What we know:
alpha/beta, Rossmann fold, 2 domains
Amino acid sequence: MKRATLKQLIADRAAKRAVVLATLMKSGEQALYHPDEDDPLRLGGADLTAEARQALAADKSRPVNSPRGEVFLGVFNPPLRLHVIGAVHITQPLVDMAAIAGFAVTVIDPRRAFATPERFPDIILDHDWPDEALTRLGIDARTAIVTLTHDPKIDDPALHVALRAPAFYIGALGSRRTHAGRVERLTEAGYTPEEIGRIHAPIGLAIGAKSPAEIAVAILAQIIEALRKPGERG
């Protein structure tokens, strides 16, 4: 690997930036592909951009064919993160399952009586207000954000930050009536219908979930669907 390529790859990893390292197996020729840039991935006499995007979406490195032979696409995605606003009953099974699914989880709730290590062992707890916490933690295209408190004073500031960021999933707990009020508040705050439309609400896949654990399953399933099948709304 050339020094410049290695240096760039290390910088991308440090910045939590998605990147594909393409290697032409026959010659060792290499190229980097960044999905946030317009430059296509060309190697071995072929445009491998579509294959690189598919590999990133699948989170899986793999070989592909090119006119000059096999090319290995090495996927380097930033870690998956889930920021949950509200240390409520649904949050407990949700964060446990999300951690098993490979997400780095943070529970954000300024109410210290709810967000306790006893209720959330081995989970990172943040007691700042959600807008402050999310701004500090950062939101990238591998971040999902879920608001669960039902309290606009806590949920809305989180949504204000989330809607200005490239999170791949934003979900908010509440009935259709609750969401209608949320839409009205966000509209008054200057958000467009397209921006507000990024919010999954009512949250979770429509599987008839009733208990906190079932609702958590529906939420995590919808998060994974948004990750693996972008553009599809379940």
